[in-house]
Amino acid sequence: MNLVKPLIVFIIITLTYITAKAQQIELGMLFGTSHYLGDLSDEKINFNNTYFATSFFGRYNISDKIAVKGMISYGHISGDDEQSSNDASKLRNLNFYTDIYEFSAHFEYNLLKNDLKNLSNRPFIPYIFAGIGVFNFNPKSDSLGKVYELQPLATEGQGSTAYNERKKYNLTEIMIPLGIGFRTRISNSFLIGFETGVRFTTTNYLDDVGGNYAENNIVKSNTGPAAAFLSDRSSEIIPGHYFKETDLRSDKKYFQNDLYFISGITISYMIRSRGQGCPNFFN
After folding, report:
1. What distance in Å separates the CA atoms of residue 142 and residue 79, rounded to the nearest whole number?
2. Does an H or E element contain 223, and which?
3. What are the CA-CA distances from residue 26 to residues 18, 38, 94 (Å)?
4. Fold type of domain 24-270
5. Model confidence over 144-183: pLDDT tens digits?
6. Are 73 and 102 in contact (CB under 8 A)?
7. Which of 23, 26, 107, 119 could pair covalently with 188 via S-S, beta carbons 3.0-4.6 A apart?
8. pTM of the predicted model, to two decimals?
């Protein structure tokens, strides 16, 4: 009960500040797509694996050139060696998919000024952004009509006595968003635009592929026959074939870690101070 009065005072002060600075605050959504770039896409974007993505964001315009933005996003990504044009990848024969849940903070720099004082102006505002965030993922794969979560199966022998130095990867990691966008005012209160950004992650296991093969029998004894099968599916291509534990499962050339992208159309509403009138799409 002792915290009620200070909390009320804090809320009143916050609301007063927001009202005074209202035209500097935007609330909006992004509707677009998500893509993946990693081992199971041959480090290329495969537009066949395009999925719906959406974001909610709040932007605070610090000045006519600088803004900060908080963003909560959802996307879906997948990769499949079967779609590769590379014979080695086809023999590896792995696949995955996962949902992505992301929270990030962006620093934006407007390449042209955003006129915050004259709302009748409707400038075109291109911007670049960079930031930091956290995201959650959980790679899965299907086999014989059943869905398997891959991380608990330790498909590279993580946690086994034979590969004690291999640790299970985390399902929540840090990422660095970097990208470009633009927006333009279509009325005093509403803006529409487009944004695209890459997420540089701190994991090579978005796709559950990040190191060397483990000896198949060790995986089987550690986490079961399903894990052994999903660890090395080359026998589906060449019956009786298994990779050696010295063979690379992850054979990247360009990026140490996996990447994903979120792009889309943005729609935002600029909160207007008291006395500025009601929102109008045409004025």
Report:
1. 12
2. helix 216-223
3. 11, 34, 43
4. Porin (2.40.160)
5. 789 999 999 999 999 999 999 999 999 999 999 999 999 9
6. yes
7. 119
8. 0.86
